Amino acid sequence: MIRLPYNGPTTKEKSIKAISLRKLFFTLLLFCSITIIYMYIRPAYSAVYKPPTPTENKKSHEKEENSDIFQAFHDCFLPKLETITESYRKFWYEFANVTKDCDNLKEYNSLDIQAAKNKDEVKYVVFPKNNNEPLTMVTLGIGRDIRAELRLKAMYPNIAFYGADPGVAVNKDLYESTLGGKFYNYAVSGQNGIHISKIFLERNFKVDATEHIRADYFFRKILNKNRIDILWIDIEQNEYGILEQIHQNGKLDQVGVKICQMNVEFHKDVFGNSDAEMQKFYDFVFKVLEDKKYILLKPKHATYMDIIYIRAFIVNVADSECTDLYIK
């Protein structure tokens, strides 16, 4: 057999071998990189992840119970609302009557709801499970009447009171000297600057331009509070800007403020005839149902000088900062 002389690998063979070596090098480099990254992040992940503690399991169970309260509210409220959604006007004028039967749900037995009456209406409060718990109470729109606040103070003395009203006369003296709270001369709403307010005088209202301050700024920066236990709002149609802030991921969530319970008056036609407020109220109610954060109770229509408005009691059943206080 004739042997041909061997002249070494051809240029093509050399090229293939070089490519193979480069592939092997990059494969080894990738493997080493992944190994190093894994070894680096594994301790951090292990430090972060921990199995749920008994306390955390308890909180999870409590959250399920709280969602039962919301679900009962939702299942009662929504079918009734669906009968009045053909127009904003019908929704406004029939809301209280069609939903009032939802106040008697057995799931609400875990809430200790008490009443405090002022001159012409009743406010509602859910008292905490622990009678020694210090509470923060804010009144937006004092209206020269603190009877309900005084009754609340008599029932539960451990409350710090803060009130805001664009009218100083009478309100400051009532809130500070009589009640022992702190008064702020602001119209708290959903915006800053000079805007229209309706101020209660001795026997009637006066419309005037006053200094407004946003609710999120007032609660977080001026009061320096991250939890408002009791909030009463009666601010003559400026309430809607505040209510836009209370929803999930709204302004109040963004600045870290929780509102535990509210008494709210929803107004219309305060600054002239308008259907806009009826739509705002409609949108607010359905956003509450969507958020799964609050329940609405004690709906009531009231009348002032032939203008019909709506009162409601609103309770937070989602944020543990609130529910741990008062849900049994």
Automatic annotation (TrEMBL):
It holds the Pfam family Methyltransf_21. GO terms for molecular function: methyltransferase activity. It comes from the Eukaryota. The chain crosses the membrane at residues 21-41. InterPro entries: FkbM_mtfrase. GO terms for biological process: methylation. Keywords: Membrane, Methyltransferase, Transferase, Transmembrane, Transmembrane helix. Residues 89-294 form the Methyltransferase FkbM domain. Signal peptide: none annotated. The keyword Magnesium does not apply. PANTHER family: METHYLTRANSFERASE FKBM DOMAIN-CONTAINING PROTEIN (PTHR22989:SF7), UNCHARACTERIZED DUF13 C.ELEGANS (PTHR22989). This is Methyltransferase FkbM domain-containing protein. The lineage of its organism: Eukaryota, Metazoa, Ecdysozoa, Nematoda, Chromadorea.
